[in-house]
Specification:
Elements lengths: L8 H21 L6 H17 L3 H14 L6 H14 L3 H14 L4 E2 L2 E2 H12 L3 H14 L6 H15 L2 H13 L14 H13 L9 H13 L3 H7 L6 E4 L16 H4 L5 E2 L11 E7 L8 E7 L12 E8 L4
Parallel strand pairs: 3-7
Antiparallel strand pairs: 1-2, 4-5, 5-6, 6-7
Helix pairs in contact: 1-2, 2-3, 3-4, 4-5, 5-6, 6-7, 7-8, 8-9, 9-10, 11-12
Length: about 325
């Protein structure tokens, strides 16, 4: 052991005492007749001493070497859990992920101070894993094995999101349905997903709908709308409106507001009025959204912008990429 020239003698004694303690416990471990409880206590003491001394590399080497040499030790899951936590503390998350996953898949669960080691591993893996396929497995494990320890409502939603990332739409739809079936789905607050319920509701409603109001192209939708307005054919306009989350609101409102989801017939505004529209779509239109300025609907608010959007629904390739009339904005653009 190397000491600096100015290190006090008392520190030398402390280091010597530490080394001697570790040596004595290590000698004890060489006894093949040790009872399981005594062996656990010895390994745990060495590990705690190294951890307290912040000798992290030595701790990792000691525990991984011990596990390799004692594959039948019933506490191996715990020793590797300590290794994983050391890596977490020392910015070695990829290595921590490896050991958490290894414990989960290669070692039986172990209760330690009323905590399941597998549950602790899953909690950490959810936080640090970036692979959707792995996260799907971890969410499934939490839901199936530890339903009383987690918020299953949130996990069903997060599971659905991971399926979505993987393009596994059948599984995503089923998971969103399970999410919506939970009693607290409409009130739960999910970090990073403030509109979780509305998004899932819209997706499921759209999936279960006939989708027969969609058009093959923006041009076809625009032509159909203009023709219906010219002929004052409110029945066709009602037919062309999206049957899922069609909104009618001012530019300042949010589409999720309950009073923006009102369903009404266009006949109430076409009779007795002279409706007109611009020849071209609004200049703010883009490849995914388009606006058609119209006016003459009422004395109160004459100008309406009809909002068209491209359907984003990869779950159904025949519908994905088509166009729908999704809503109305009242008044001039802000």
């Amino acid at each position: 052991m190397i000491y600096t020239a100015c290190a006090p003698a008392v520190n030398d004694k402390l280091y010597d005492t530490f080394d001697e303690t570790q040596r004595q416990i290590s000698l004890l471990l060489e006894n093949t007749d040790l009872k399981a409880e005594t062996r656990y206590a010895a390994v745990n003491q060495i590990a705690k001493n190294l951890l307290a001394a912040e000798q992290y590399n030595q701790l990792i080497l000691f525990l991984t070497d011990y596990v390799e040499k004692h594959p039948q030790d019933q506490y191996n899951a715990y020793w590797l859990l300590m290794v994983a936590h050391v890596y977490m503390q020392t910015d070695g998350k990829p290595f921590a992920e490896y050991y958490f996953d290894r414990i989960l898949k290669q070692y039986p669960d172990l209760m330690l101070q009323n905590n399941s080691i597998h549950f602790l591993c899953l909690q950490n893996l959810i936080r640090i894993s970036n692979t959707p396929q792995d996260r799907i497995y971890y969410f499934q494990q939490l839901i199936n094995r530890f339903p009383n320890n987690v918020n299953t409502t949130e996990l069903y939603y997060r599971l659905a999101q991971e399926y979505e990332k993987e393009g596994e739409w059948d599984s995503a739809i089923k998971s969103y349905e399970l999410f919506l079936d939970q009693s607290d789905a409409s009130s739960i607050q999910i970090a990073g997903s403030p509109e979780a319920y509305n998004y899932a509701r819209m997706l499921i409603d759209f999936n279960n709908s006939p989708k027969d109001w969609t058009f093959e192209s923006l041009e076809a939708l625009e032509e159909a709308i203009k023709t219906a307005i010219t002929r004052y054919n409110y029945r066709d306009l009602d037919k062309y409106k999206s049957k899922v989350n069609f909104f009618a609101m001012s530019w300042k409102q949010d589409a999720t507001d309950t009073n923006s989801q009102e369903d009404f017939s266009m006949s109430s505004f076409m009779r007795g009025n002279r409706i007109r529209y611009n020849a071209e779509l609004d200049e703010s239109s883009n490849p995914n959204e388009a606006y058609l300025r119209t006016w003459g609907w009422s004395n109160y608010i004459s100008v309406w912008y009809l909002y068209f959007r491209k359907v984003n629904f990869p779950a159904d390739p025949e519908i994905h990429g088509r166009w729908e009339w999704a809503g109305i904005y009242f008044g001039e653009k802000l």
